[in-house]
Every structure is written in C-alpha cells, then in structure tokens.
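Key result, reporting period 2: structure in, sequence out.
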C-alpha cells in the first residue's frame, strides 16, 4: 500500500492515518457525555508504533476494518499521538532507534492520561525472559514477527473486547440505576474538571440544586413505586431540557438533583432553570398531598461564580445550598438565584 493510499482511506469506511506522512491534524469524533452511550458508536482507535514502514502498512491493512488506525514511525511520535488521541489499544514495537518500546511503555504507564491504555508489544525476539520483562512493564500481550494475520487479529480482538467491557463497567458505575442519569460519583468527578477548566479560562460556572417538593408525602400518598416513576419522569424531562452536551444533570441523592452549566452567566442560568421549574409542574404528575399544587413541583437554588485560585467548588456548593433553602422557605415551586 502506497503512502498516499493510506491517507486517502481516511475518508472511507476504514480509517488509517500515518502521522509520519503529513502535518495535518487528525480529526477525531468528540467524546459524548451521554450516559446512554455506554459503549459508543464511533470506531475503536488503534495506535501502531513501529519504525518499519512495511510493518505499519501490514498491520494497518489487517486491522483497519471498522476501526481507526493511527501510525507512528518512532517512540517519540508514538508518545505524542497516544497523549493526543488516547487510543483504545497500542501496538508497540520493542526495538526502535531513539526511544525504545520499553521506554515508551514506562512513559505511558507513568502518565495518568495514558496509563490505562492496553499495550501489545510486537517483536522479532521473544524469549521467556523478554516476555516476562515486557509484561512486568505493563504490556498485556505479545505479537511476534513475522506476523501471522489470524494471530494478530485474534489477539487484538481479545484485548479490545476486554477494554470495551472494562469501559462499560466504568460508565455503568457513574449512572444512577433508577433514573438512568449520572449519579453523584460522576458529578463529583465532573465538577472538579469543569471548575478547573473555567478557572483556567476565566469563565463563569453556574450550579443548581433541585429538590422535588413534598416528596415524602408523595411516597406516603402514592407508594414508593410511583415515587420511583416520578423521579424517572422528572430526571428525564430535565435532561431533555439541557441542550448543550457539556451541561449535565446528576442525581445528588434521594429526590435531589444537581445541574452543572459551564461557561454560563447568571442571567442565562436563571432563565434555563426557571423554564425547567415551570415545565415540571406542566408535566401534570398528580400530587394531591402537596400543599402548593395539585401536581409535582420542584424548588431550585443556584449561583454563578468565576472560579478564582483561592476558591474551591465546595464554596459554590454551600452558596447554592443556601439558596435552595431560601426557595423552600419562600413557598417552594420557585428558583432562588444568587444576585
């Protein structure tokens, strides 16, 4: 396969990119934050790092069907592409000029962003001692040269299947099983990333806490199964109101939810949350034991802050909690936002 043929296949159903051939950035599909995309529809990404062009080409031809294959000609390039694209699997030549495969995997495993990526070593010299040394460094398998196509495909398939299962379990651990939105564990991870990102870019972050009004009396009146269904309906409705992919709702605990709106000023955030508050009552979920409406309603407290170096997201949460208390004290079914 000629170099230009490899590049041209980037626009076909197969995806192969040899970074040693051009400087144009490789466009990848953005990750989704939708908890329902547990496995994902985008092709899996494989990074092949080998100084021999013939080896890169052969492995690309074997593996590119329904996958994105990224090729690197040496260890330094491989490290840069691994950090940039975070592939699902790396095939790594052991013996390369400059940075060897052993040095590459040490760097990968010492970097928090790449340490989870499985690595299969490829080598023409595999003694028992060599294999043990590579496995001790963190490799998951070995492929010997010259390549046997069926063996290459089988080993890669096995590792990718294990990686898919691992990612699925990790994502399931971040989803609330009842409402099928994110859970508090995900929120705790997300708020730190969003806070730090807004701090770096000097942008506002808006945060809101929502509580279903008189939910205990709802459970007493209609039963816990109906209460569970009400939680699901409210969660699904609110999630559908958040239009941007980086806006998230998570179940904070019990009948309480949290919404994170990055890069959103106070006026816009209050408008979004006011619309949500009003639309919940318009769902007309019966709640005859409520003292403020015949239907399920919610109370919302919120605040907006541009993170400063001396501040933490916990301070924002405390402020938001105070305004949720005010929303309840003022009669519920309303939004109270920090001026």
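The corresponding designed sequence is given below.
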């Amino acid at each position: 396969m000629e170099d230009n043929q490899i590049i041209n296949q980037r626009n076909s159903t197969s995806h192969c990119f040899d970074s040693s051939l051009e400087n144009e950035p490789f466009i990848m599909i953005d990750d989704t934050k939708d908890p329902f995309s547990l496995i994902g529809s985008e092709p899996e990404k494989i990074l092949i790092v080998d100084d021999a062009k013939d080896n890169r080409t052969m492995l690309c031809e074997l593996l590119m069907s329904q996958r994105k294959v990224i090729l690197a000609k040496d260890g330094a390039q491989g490290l840069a592409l691994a950090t940039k694209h975070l592939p699902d699997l790396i095939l790594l030549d052991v013996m390369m000029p400059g940075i060897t495969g052993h040095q590459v995997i040490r760097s990968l495993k010492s970097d928090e962003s790449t340490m989870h990526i499985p690595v299969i070593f490829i080598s023409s010299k595999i003694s028992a001692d060599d294999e043990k040394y590579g496995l001790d460094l963190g490799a998951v398998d070995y492929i010997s040269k010259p390549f046997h196509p069926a063996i290459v495909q089988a080993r890669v398939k096995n590792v990718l299947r294990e990686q898919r299962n691992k990612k699925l379990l990790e994502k399931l651990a971040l989803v609330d099983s009842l409402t099928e939105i994110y859970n508090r564990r995900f929120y705790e991870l997300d708020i730190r990333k969003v806070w730090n990102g807004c701090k770096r870019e000097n942008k506002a972050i808006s945060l809101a806490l929502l509580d279903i009004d008189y939910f205990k009396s709802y459970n007493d009146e209609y039963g816990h199964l109906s209460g569970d269904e009400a939680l699901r309906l409210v969660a699904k409705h609110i999630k559908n109101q958040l239009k941007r992919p980086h806006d998230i709702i998570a179940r904070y605990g019990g009948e309480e939810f949290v919404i994170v709106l990055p890069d959103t000023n106070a006026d816009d955030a209050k408008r979004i949350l006011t619309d949500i508050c009003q639309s919940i009552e318009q769902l007309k979920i019966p709640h005859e034991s409520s003292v403020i409406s015949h239907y399920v309603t919610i109370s919302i407290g919120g605040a907006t802050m541009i993170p400063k170096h001396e501040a933490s997201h916990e301070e924002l949460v405390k402020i938001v909690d105070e305004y949720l208390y005010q929303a309840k004290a003022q009669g519920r079914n309303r939004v109270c936002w920090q001026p």
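The chain has a mean pLDDT of 88. The longest strand covers residues 205-212. This case is discussed further under Risks and Mitigation.
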